[in-house]
Amino acid sequence: MGYHGWQGDPPGAEDEARRRIVQAAIACIDRAGLAKTNLSHIAAEAGVTRQTVYRYFPSLAEILRAVAHAGAEEFAERMRRHLSAFDSPVEVAVESVVFAVRSLPDEPYLGLLLRAGEADYFTAGTATPPSFSLGARILRDTEVDWFAAGVRTDAELEELAEILMRLFMSFLQYPSTPPATDDELREMVRRWIGPALRG
């Protein structure tokens, strides 16, 4: 159902249709930028009508969420590389928050919802069990001995990832006034998260 058009090459399943709409959105954003991309452009790029796009994505924000999700692994790899320079559990926790707050708004795909003024959609898309599992995987890939730091189980590591992610999402959605410097943000996270990782 809903395979009319598609430049003569209809997808075989709904997941494929959604993936191709997301690819069309990425192509439009890469070519014209976010501000000049709308549902009509995405539909034309995919070779379908706007109604077909709406069948799979009820709004542009939902498409941007899917585009952001597609960029999550690339961002995770950049964060892993950044955190590899630290071997203290406290510093890894601190730097994960600072890195996310400073990097996410400029991420080519993951920061789209923030740049589009859709912070609520960004938060809803990020505050999910798969996102927390990805966060735990990033922490696990560091040189830190999490067990020695008091993080005894995989479930506890996911809880730590969730706390850190909710913290950076809060800073992104509701920035300090005036904005905190990197060092001020580091000191704040170190002061309040640090004691939990020394036990």
Write the layout of secondary structure elements.
Elements: H1 14-32, H2 39-46, H3 50-56, H4 60-70, H5 72-83, H6 89-103, H7 112-115, H8 119-126, H9 129-140, H10 154-173, H11 182-193
Helix pairs in contact: 1-2, 1-4, 5-9, 6-10, 6-11, 8-10, 9-10
Features of the shown structure:
elongated, transcription cis-regulatory region binding, Arc Repressor Mutant, subunit A, 199 residues, HTH-type_TetR-like_transc_reg, TetR/AcrR family transcriptional regulator
3D architecture notes:
This protein is an all-alpha fold. The chain has two domains: 53 residues, Homeodomain-like (Arc Repressor Mutant, subunit A, Orthogonal Bundle), CATH 1.10.10; 133 residues. It has eleven helices and no strands. Helix 1 crosses helix 4 and helix 5 runs parallel beside helix 9. The relative contact order is 0.11.
Structure at a glance:
By secondary structure, this protein is mainly α.
Report the sheet with the most strands, covering strand number, pairing sense and barrel closure: none
Q: How many domain modules? A: 2
Shape: elongated
Termini gap: 57 Å
What is the C-alpha radius of gyration, as a whole number of Å? 19 Å
The helix content is: 55-70%
Strand content: under 5%
Report the uncertain regions: none
